[in-house]
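Sample intake sheet
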Amino acid sequence: MLTALYVPANRPDRFAKAVAAGPDLVVFDLEDAVPVADKADARGWAVAWVAANARGPVEIRVNALDSPWIEDDLAAIRAVPQVRLRVPKVERAADVHAVLDKVPSARITALIESPLGLERAFEIATADSRVVAVALGEADLSSALGVDGPEGLTWARGRLVSASRAAGLGAPMMSVYANVHDLDGLRRTCEEGRTLGFVGRTAIHPRQLPTIVEAFTPTPAQITAAQELLAAVEKADIANGGVIVLPDGRMADPAMIGRARELTTLMREIESHRG
């Protein structure tokens, strides 16, 4: 999964358009994108649309657990089977359990948006088998940490990648890039995130999706190297131990197999999506 696209839940005219834009995941946002006066209507529109029309992966971002709207959010969503929920401002495993107590069939993406949540990232990621992803809410986290710009989030991003991997959830997706017109900046920061271990990114406008896919697609050279390594490992039968030297001088051992398999699997998924 490389792309997720937010759509404001108070804009039902955009729901079908968001799905048609082709992201891997559409996130119906009940929280930040929705004014207080529209909260109830937005909730009703999003839940009804997801229940009646969703064919691919969709997710609903509920309001924060300490907000006055969360109880109504969860009560309405409970009727949607196997729904994915994006839960903001998660700071502890108990926050995950509180949601799952109300919506037992949910699958959870936990948004970590505070220093306390970041310190407990692994605890949150392993709170329950129904946690399927963790992600950063970078705007809130930047404010709480007192940092300006992406450089101040480098450690936090690395911490999240490590927690996600350690929990067996795989590589996480990056947070949104707020300037929808700055595709060069989007591409540059995606490449920075890629070097830290992220795979994919959440978007706030359909025009950002192609740039995200492009930035996270393995290069032909990477795929060729991965395929050659896997072929050599199989031929030499060292999957369970041993070392070989490839024709280009690279040493290959079983520790390198996992990354090569990840790259080739990711490329197959991208090509399948394009098809």
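Comment: DSSP finds twelve helices and nine strands in the chain. The chain has a mean pLDDT of 91.
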